[in-house]
Every structure is written in structure tokens, then in C-alpha cells.
Specification:
CATH class: Alpha Beta
Number of helices: 7
Strand order of the largest sheet: 5-9-6-10
Number of strands: 10
CATH superfamily: Spore Coat Polysaccharide Biosynthesis Protein SpsA, Chain A
Order of helices and strands: EEHEHEHEHEEEEHHEH
Helix content: 25-40%
Number of domains: 1
CATH architecture: Alpha-Beta Complex
Shape: globular
Length: 216
């Protein structure tokens, strides 16, 4: 992002990116308990932002780790300590840098996870796709109808997700679906939304502001 400020703390239409993401979950009908995983070195900054923006949406802050995998694992440990019925719950994981997820899609992801065990938002590719060989010397076309771009939230039965995370980290894990799949569980794909962008580059904030104004 070219900024010393973590992208989830950057302002989008006057409000930190992560607050938009939290509010989306607050507005969905599933009424989830909200756990925000933040690295200990950033928690004071988050508290300051909450006070500055009078952000009173109820949430529990949990220490993040040094990787996405570690952070999710810490969040799961918190769920086990906070909810005696965690084994029968549905747990969703969402990227703080995806501020514009529609609440209706959050509900649909929860619904499909409750029905099938594991569900993840995914966007079918509209671009032509080519796949490089391992040494990069060759590439082959891949039917774009077979290619989906993963989004979040991704939701799972509590026992399934905690069972899948009962292992060491692996560089092949890029999201929670890949961790769960490694354990042998199938993943149900839920049609995503082009507005559910992930803030990655500086221009994404400008795009997100335009999308946000159209969604209001």
C-alpha cells in the first residue's frame, strides 16, 4: 500500500476499512458473535481508532499471530473458551481488508455452511486463464469456466474448522478453505460479488469509495 498504516486501518469514506467489514457482519441476519484478531502491537492503535470514531459495535479483540494461519488459530482458541457450544456452531472467517461484503452474502455463506459443512464465497473468472508450468517455460490455456477466485467470508462447522487447524502451518495454505480441504473435507462454493474487493493497492481505496457510495 506504500503506507506505514496497516491497510485495515486506512480510512475509507472517513471510517477505517476494518470497521466497514465489522459493520457488514453486524447488519447481517445471522447475528454472529464478532471476534477481531489483531496483532498485539496494533491493538492500542485499534482502541484509539474506536474511540476517535465512536465505534461501539460489540466485538472481542484477540491477539493475532505472525501469519494468517496463526491468527485464525488464535481466533479459534478464543471461540472455544468463549462458547461452550462451539462444536455445534458455524464459524466464519473474513478478511479485514474486504470492507464491502454484502450482508446478504454473509448470510448465504452461513446458510450453505450449516447445510453442507464448509462454504466459501468465490467469483467465477471472467478473464482468459493460462497456467504456467513449474519451471515457467511453458503455459497452457485453462477453461475460465473452471476457475474461481476465492473471496471471504468462508464458513464452516465448528468441529470441522477446529479439526482442520489442529496442525502446523504450511505455505500452501492461502485461505481457510485450503486448510479444510487438506483435511479431506469438500468445499461448497457460494457465488461471490465483484464489489467484495480486497484492499491491496492504493487505487483499491478509490475504487472501494465509489462502490460504497453506490451501495448506500
Amino acid at each position: 500500500m506504500g503506507s506505514d498504516t496497516p491497510k485495515q486501518f486506512l480510512l475509507l469514506d472517513g471510517l477505517p476499512v476494518m470497521m466497514h467489514a465489522i459493520r457488514a457482519f453486524c447488519r447481517c441476519n445471522s447475528s454472529p458473535q464478532l471476534i477481531v484478531v489483531i496483532h498485539p502491537t496494533m491493538q492500542n492503535d485499534w482502541q484509539t481508532l474506536c474511540e476517535k470514531h465512536s465505534f461501539s459495535t460489540e466485538h472481542t479483540v484477540v491477539n493475532g499471530g505472525n501469519s494468517r494461519f496463526e491468527s485464525v488459530k488464535n481466533g479459534l482458541k478464543a471461540i472455544q473458551s468463549l462458547d461452550a457450544d462451539w462444536a455445534n456452531s458455524v464459524i466464519a472467517v473474513h478478511d479485514a481488508a474486504r470492507p464491502l461484503v454484502p450482508p446478504a452474502l454473509i448470510d448465504e455463506t452461513y446458510k450453505q455452511a450449516k447445510r453442507n459443512g464448509a462454504a466459501a464465497l468465490a467469483l467465477r473468472s471472467t478473464d482468459s486463464v493460462r497456467i504456467k508450468s513449474g519451471n515457467g517455460l511453458k503455459n497452457n490455456a485453462c477453461p475460465r469456466s473452471h476457475v474461481y477466485l476465492m473471496q471471504t467470508p468462508q464458513a464452516f462447522h465448528g468441529t470441522m474448522l477446529i479439526d482442520a487447524y489442529d496442525r502446523d502451518d504450511d505455505t500452501s495454505f492461502t485461505d481457510d478453505a485450503s486448510v479444510v480441504e487438506k483435511k479431506g473435507y469438500p468445499i461448497t462454493l457460494v457465488d461471490g460479488d465483484t464489489r467484495n474487493i480486497k484492499i491491496t493497492f492504493p487505487e483499491d481505496l478509490s475504487i472501494a469509495k465509489i462502490l460504497l457510495q453506490k451501495m448506500l
